[in-house]
Amino acid sequence: MINYNEKRYKNIIGKNVERYRLKNSCTQENLADIVGCKQQTINSIEKGRIKRSKYLPYIASALGVNIADLDPDLNKDQNKRAFELTHSNNHKENINSDINTVNIHDVINEHKSTSNYLKKINSDIPIFATIKELDNYFLITNTPVEYIPRPHLVNLEKDAFGIIIGNHAMYPLFRVGDVIVVHPRKTVKEDDVCIFIGYENGLMIYTIGELIHEDALSWTVRQYKLYCNFSLPKTVWKKCNAIIIKIFR
Predict the structure, then answer these.
(1) CA–CA separation, 60 vs 124, rounded Å?
(2) Is the preceding omega at residue 172 within 30 degrees of 0, hence cis?
(3) N or C: which terminal CB in the chain sees fewer CB atoms within 10 Å?
(4) Measured on CA atoms in the order 54, 157, 132, 231, is the torsion positive or negative?
(5) 125-134 and 137-140 as β-strands: parallel, antiparallel, unpaired?
(6) What distance in Å separates the CA atoms of residue 76 and residue 94, rounded to the nearest whole number?
(7) Do the Cβ atoms of 55 and 94 come closer than 8 Å?
(8) From CA 1, how far away is CA 108, in angstroms rounded?
């Protein structure tokens, strides 16, 4: 059972997130896209349904504030108190169910580690080139051919990367020579333009297209050049990542 203080604590964090989001003229959906989570997660945080979310450091960075501006307990004396972490089956993202308590000292150290982590990844991202076309898919270079300054939409994503377009499959959206930037952590949905990553004969293969439909067995994809739909079996095509930026060359 959630007591009054726990409920008030969650509401303070949620109200702070909402206040800074609105101050930045940002919708819940916009913030979720930048952070790499679902809009429902942002809504749950703002409504006070989630006590501590793993996304909170990323939300703070996206809103241009310190995490302590969202969670006032991080400004308190480290040894003043330990606080209980509640968890429910509806919000499993909060914390593993076999962990019951955490000291504020650990939270602050975690935040410091996260801050250092963000500083480390705030650098250039690698760009790979297309090297071989095989039917509807292609291969890319094993090592980057160049690096570009990290776009702000992937400022929190350490595994972001770019690919130089080498075919006309998505023309006129992407032209040969354009650079696309991939966000591996962003939630994808139908109608998103994505990169699909598969494995065949020991090789990592790629294709690009608009996600039309997803089920348990396959992805249905559309490419614009011929405006045709085709199916990618998940036995081969294991990953679907969002393409979030196109850079003209």
Answers:
(1) 21
(2) yes
(3) N
(4) positive
(5) antiparallel
(6) 22
(7) no
(8) 26
CA-based angle 27:121:195, to the nearest 5? 65
What HEC string does 45-75 produce? HHCCCCCCCCCHHHHHHHHCCCHHHHCHHHH
Cα 166 from Cα 175, distance rounded (Å):
8
Mean pLDDT per 10-residue interval, the chain, length 249 residues:
52 90 87 84 89 79 80 55 32 31 37 46 82 83 89 82 91 90 89 92 90 95 89 94 83
Distance, CA of 145 to CA of 22 (rounded, Å):
40
> What does the pLDDT read at residue 235?
94
- Per-residue pLDDT, 35: 79
DSSP code, position 167? S
Q: 241: which residues sit within 8 A by CB, 6+ positions away?
A: 182, 183, 184, 186, 188, 194, 195, 197
Q: What angle do CA 139, 162, 56 make, to 5 degrees?
A: 130
pLDDT recorded at residue 167: 87
pLDDT for residue 60:
82
Q: Any alpha helices (H) in the chain, and if so which ranges?
A: 4-23, 28-35, 39-46, 56-63, 67-70, 104-121
Could you tell me the two tokens for 111? 């935040």
Write out the two tokens for 27: 């919708």
DSSP, res 108: H
How far is Cα 10 from Cα 46, in angstroms, rounded to an integer? 8
